[in-house]
Protein 1
Amino acid sequence: MESKQRLLEPQLVQTGRADQFSRKVFCDGMRDGVPIALGYFAVSFSLGIAARKAGFTPFQGFLVSLLNNASAGEYAAFALIMANATYFEVAVITLIANARYLLMSCALAQRFAPETPFWHRLLIGYDVTDELFGITIARPGNLNPYYTYGAILLAAPAWACGTALGIIAGNLLPLRVVSALSVALYGMFLAIIIPPARKDRIVAVLVVISFALSFLCSYLPGISALSEGTRTILLTVAISGAAAVLFPVRQEENEDDA
Amino acid sequence: MTHNNYIYIAVMALVSYAIRILPLTLIRKPIKNRFIQSFLYYVPYVTLAVMTFPAIIQATQSPAAGAVALVVGIAAAWFGASLFQVAAGCCAVVFVLEFFI
């Protein structure tokens, strides 16, 4: 009861507009952005190793990460580009691997106070990621964009610089270190999918099925000849489509609970 | 045919930004279609799972080290470790194991 009271309090106290700049809100965002930036820096380093294999220079890698802010999306695109993919294929894999941000943006759109100036939507949309979405949506009441800006200010440069450094260091570091660092990205993926799998048994089953089918497809003759990126697209659409038909999510779940 | 990296970057950036910005600007209403809603709900978990395995055991020099990193990563995330802890833990496991394998 007590904790619930405390959670609700800021909402009750909140008077006037939610989108006002305040140094405290901005600093709160920066404080919560520190651990995220740290994680991004480590993970983007291993992303840089993949970018180097795809033939990207440190500056190009910096640019990719600065403009995309997407772990799986960038990685999948690099894997395709390695195989000399068409621009269309790269667009499709980016769409699939980043589809979850569409959902997150939908949820964020509901939390903007109606009077918030439009340009805040364009800026917030720049860096909707699993982690930044997580801390933004966890705050009670209407969204104060300056909180998220504080976190972005640390997270986005860490992500971009880490990628560039990964490309540079991929050449310099011993093979063993590169080998160890290259699993950081997969660690990040696990940190995203495992906690929801623990809460939702259907998600857990889907994760196991995805592991199994992905493994099978990488060895099956015929399918294994397709590039990694193409297999990811096909498997994602097939498995998620089947799951959506068999286990539709309950309508209330994604709706405004106000 | 050779491709230009800067066009690749532009394509990626455009798609990534469009995905995030459309729901915030044009489509402001929640998605009502139950199939699309469910599909979008499952997509992230499936994509990331498909991308993780077996890629993680192919990324390391020794597949066994990658496999152990996968198990450790799943366990750490299950018990609530943060993004940084899970990622660093996986790296440490591979680094140490490849001393011996």
Protein 2
Amino acid sequence: MASELRLVGVGVRYGGVQALDDVSLAVAPGRVLGLIGPNGAGKTTLINATTGFATLAAGSIVLGERRIDGLPPHRIARAGIARTYQNIRLFGALDVRTNLAAGAYAQAGRLSDDDARALLARAGVPDVPLAATAAALPYGDQRRLEIARALAARPTIVMLDEPAAGMNPAETARLVTTIRAIAGEGIGVLLIEHDMALVRAACDDVVVLNFGAVLARGTPAEIARNPAVIDAYLGTSGEATA
Amino acid sequence: MNLGTFYAQHSRLIDQIGINALLALSLSVSLQAGQLALAQAAFAGIAAYVSAIAAMQFGFPLAAAIAVAIAAAALAAAALAYPVRKLRGIFLAIATIGFGEIVRVVANNVDITGGAEGLSGIPNDVTTPIIYGALLLVALALVALARTKFALAVKLTREDENAARGVGVDVGMVRFASLVIGGAIAGLAGALYAHAFYFLTPTDFGFARMEQILVWCVIGGVTSPAGAVVGAVLLSILPEVIRPLADYRELTSGLILLGVILFVPNGLSMLWAKRGV
């Protein structure tokens, strides 16, 4: 069941723009890989390429033993990769219960109310009513519901695209617990995040993207000390050494 | 007035209402999947001609003629599904209306359909119980379908095609299936029409009819099959009950449509389903 996601030499081109260039990385079961980088570095493109929403110009993507690049999005979802979106993409007009049932669409059988509540609890929002309309929930709860919907698919890999965006510090701190718990279940997590405190607390490994290419990789502590990363992303080296 | 006289006086209207309800259901299948595919009248027209020709020229019994007609309509829908697979919204509407016009023009110009003069003398062997029996069967089939996972896939496709793909819904298959199922239902309605009214011209299933079907669905509530039926029944009866309205049929239906869009944007189905989807 637990299998590794490997991207090898992945390239994506949008018209004349090289959005991703020769990117290789692996998301291992039970580990959290942070993906950081400036805006436009290609982070979301990497999730889109993995989940079949962007076409590869080069490279390959393998889940366990199975090559998944070139498959349509719904086949990749069924293969065990679930995701959330930078701009929340819940089924806003539908209730919480149906959103979770949507997440479990590819699973056999029906999602019971108990199953639905268990998913909400794992995503850190046990008290959200199942009959509530998704779009009417507070922003932070919507982000959590998206995570719960991803978990409903019983995924091997979960890709979270800026799950802390719009959350306050207390909510962000609780999100760390949620993400670590997901990895604790043996799921491989890829986390796109700008908040370095969250990255440091939640991630086992970090990959830094810049202009579509891998700039650096290592543990969060190593990345925080890397001069090239500091220069490109975390702040000018002048500030860092001051 | 007893029931027998009432039926004798209004049997044509009663039959027409049943057929209209079927046409409304056929379009609601597409609308529920969020697809503004407006070829239902054309599918019905194809089936009407196929069943009429099967009965008149090849001596098919009624059941066989209807079955062949439904198959022809479903096949036409399947054939149309491929070229429109990338079209959405207004572009899909235009392409499918164009398909309807092609069907009408062809029917107008080939010999086997009788051209503009149409076909007459179609065996008149569809009765009111057959029409309402068919309507009941289709309604039951749709209720059964609403309990399956396919119904969830349809709902998710309507709400957000990409998010639906992201949870494993084969959106292309949903769009294809909804067009073909809707086409088959429209085909049934068309075949019944041919045999209930035994006279058929190319304009019977032209753009004006398609527009009527859409109005019924919008008035009833675009995502509600029951609403579509109510819309069809209401707008079929209204001009008969209020006689002056019959002369201004298009104007009246236009005003009603405007009123619904302005005041009950989700259609009449909102009146009995307070919340929900």
Protein 3
Amino acid sequence: MLNKLTHIVLLTLFTGLILGVFYPLAGQNRAEIPGGSFHSVLPEVKGEPNEVELFHLDQTAVTNGQFLEFLKENPDWRRSYTPALYAENGYLKHWKSDLDYGDESLQGLPVTRVSWFAANAYCGWKSGRLPTLNEWEYAAQLMDHESAVEADQFSADLIGWYSAVDTDKTQPVASTGIENRHGVKDMFGLVMEWVEDFQPPIGEDISIDCGTMGTMKGDNSIYSYAMSIRYVTRMSFKPTSTTGMLGFRCAYNQQPEL
Amino acid sequence: MNRTKKLSLTLFAFFLLPTALLAQHGHGNHTNNNALNPKEVNMEHSLFHMSANWTNHRNETLKLSDFSGNPVVIVMYYGNCVQVCPILIRDANRVFKAVDESLRKNVRVLAVTFDPQNDTIERLHAYAEEKELNIPEWHFITGNRSDIRELAMLLGVEYTKKGDGHFAHSNLVTVLDDEGKIIHRLEGLNQPVDEAAKYIETILNTNPDGRSHQNLD
């Protein structure tokens, strides 16, 4: 009898310990992205790669379900309260009402029709931030392909996808099967994503024309062309834009933000 | 023949194309080619909607809406920037000083850092002292990263942290009216400030005591 009780107590303690250690990490679904560098297509510093420090990134884009939790705690960001300063009219217009996205099937879909301001506020609420453009691009190119041929095929498909992101056929997060080597899912093939500095300093005169594309620094690979399309598309957004093709995920510093 | 054609095409590509691109750059009517051009901004809506909490160099917590009723001059800078930023701060002060002395006490000047990691309250305070601007009308301000980025986005200030810890950034001084709407922007360094001062004086002459709280829109 006493033995059995001790057994139960020990088991409870042990389970508690295991949960205490692993649950906080497991619950967050964040990937650690080690520092490194990559080549952007922007002519920043000639030939020099962009350095990126270690950071953490959500494994999946923020869903309607998650965004609803944010709205419950932050009334200012509900559809009917958000001023035009922060979002165009289309803000969350596919939702049924302020705190109801309507169809249950939307729960696991990436939230779209959110302005940069709303995305930025969500990540701040999570004690994080939007990933910088360089962080996002760096994480996105940490893909392992079987071969160069396969990598080119992937990039070619990507160009097709960027040409016509179909906002009527959005799938749930983690459904594309595309994943980088650190477990970050759907950076391609689901929705485009906001980044902290989506209009980088150089952005002024860049547009989608051959002359401009030609001046973007790249290595002539197919991926570099897909990347140029992504940069240029991103720069065309305004911080108040609320399109069906744009979602987001958050990033976090190793040390909490001050 | 073919050769000549090829050569002229090459010439075009090498000389005319870059010229065409440079010509596009010249659209802005300011001359600071090395700095980032500020973005167009929404001037119809009040920035006092921003609900973020900020901390100034006197360690006081404040919101932008606390300045409702006062014209506000805003400049974004960071303390480790020793070449350009002192000029930006000086420009904001030139606007401040250009306002008639009897009205000046109702003007608020906010200098907001891009660099909350290095610009601690202590450093903001030391900076204010060093520039002899630790005066009631001035607030050297820090906040959390996403709020600083949000404010920059509202003002049309671009900035990017570079690998060496410095920031590439637009040089911009913004004037808000007493309802928090952007009414004037000084783009670039060392620009004339008379117009900015005139805007501010007009507001203060209409509403000399400031601080009459109005509905935001």
Protein 4
Amino acid sequence: MPPSIRLISSLDNPIDELPQVVEIVPDPQPVAATPPAKRRFTLAPLIARLRDTALAILPTLIMVGALLMVWEIACSGEGATLPSPSRVWVESHDVIMHPLKGVELDGFGIKIQDGGDVGIAGHIITSLKRVAVGFGLSAIFGIALGILIGQSKFAYRALDPLFQILRTVPPLAWLPISLAIFQQAQPSAIFLIFITAIWPVILNTAAGVQNIPATYRNVGRVLSLNPFEYFVKIMLPATVPHMFTGLRIGVGMSWLAIVAAEMVQGGTGIGFFIWDSYNSSLLTDTIVALVWIGLVGFCLDRIVGWIGRRIARQA
Amino acid sequence: MKHRSYLALEGIGVSFPTPKGPFTALRDVDLSIEKGEFVALIGHSGCGKSTLLNIVAGLTRPSRGVIFLDGDVIDRPGPDRAVIFQDHSLLPWLTVEENVRLAVDKVMAGKPRAERRDWVMHNLDLVQMGHAAAKRPGELSGGMKQRVGIARAIAMSPRVLLMDEPFGALDALTRASLQDAVMAIQARLNNTVIMITHDVDEAVLLADRVVMMTNGPEATIGEDLRIDLPRPRSRIEAADMPAYAHARHEVLHFLHQRFSNPVDKAA
């Protein structure tokens, strides 16, 4: 016998009446987490974490020690042109031990003594301020331009070749032009940082926008998001990881540029400090400055990377 | 005056220019779907099923023909035609609740916040995902993600629900559980649905009509089979019914004899 035919219309099937036969078989649901037991404070996890950290950095420490030893042995002979670590320690003792000379906390601001004898941290802070302004500008303009050429094929064709050529110009090559335009040391140093750091920001942001998966675009189209909503809700969050790759490379390059810029001009900043110590034949001071620059550059990179991860998680 | 169905595809054709001259993917597709009908679209890969669905969604424009929905001509995407994508396409940076709310905020823009919130949770509960509202898609299984995808689509109270191989990427057991969920929701909401599928059993079990497409190029509708099975349907009982076996036979015959896979034919 053929099965009976029944038409289902919205009338004879009121919305609130769920047919009893139909059962929704759920996906296996995660077992509800047992309520956390009362926390007893123990040192065990803390010690375990400390041990893990120690194990992770131990190889680095051993390597640094080994390198210092090789350097010490290689440069301890008569007539060595490069000072050995122990000589750096002795001759630049003052520079190493008093980095904050001439730096004062003034309320929330940091005041650095004008001219005269300023510690190495003071020079670093001056340089960081310049980087903050120059890199901040390149982040703003770089992201905006990156979105523009990522979104518009015409803008991409028009601008991408220019960017590809300009990004290969070394920071120092911009210096004469920068000085000619701005006439003053401070703005031209900032311009130098800006023009060095902007390219990776532009190109990575553009790549991020171009690589937004088609399905996300389709979600935006089906929901009829207007351009502003699409920008805020889909394009920005989807592009953030690429953007921060660019910002991370950019901050590294701006740190490279600041030293170049300050070596030739200025009267403050870490680049100037290096140039000055070279002119005064204080090679040990230069070595101390190199260590500081490396450490600060490393921290900048980590900070931008950390912010990127935080935002990517929240966005 | 001619009666026009709730959703009417009239003379739809799609062709692309290629270096070797125009390539016609679809031609002369006419399809009429009444309100509340569940239509499964089945055919081999490359027959243009997805293209047809995208045309109804407004994501692709046809080269020829018109689509009417409740008398309106469709020429752009809109939230009245919600799409459930095969890859669920949830936004990974939003929680489950925020993903659904993105859609709800758009279609219920005028309503108070509390009402929109309740509507989001109501729809998540419908697909039994209320417990995961605060989770991100990355923390969910494939089946759960697709449940959220369904919740997002039905929360838009669409005039037509479009499903593009919604369960194609899931394992057989998860797929069965989602099919049951779709049947339960359909019994309750009575949406107008077009679902693309590769799965004969899925088509016969879920749909009121199975529309079979011929192979491309120049694909079109080959047969339109009404499935006369009583609802609510259960997969166990349906399997024993002669009408089920008959429908299944018809579809298999169409797919594997009359229009077998073009790749097999070439081999």
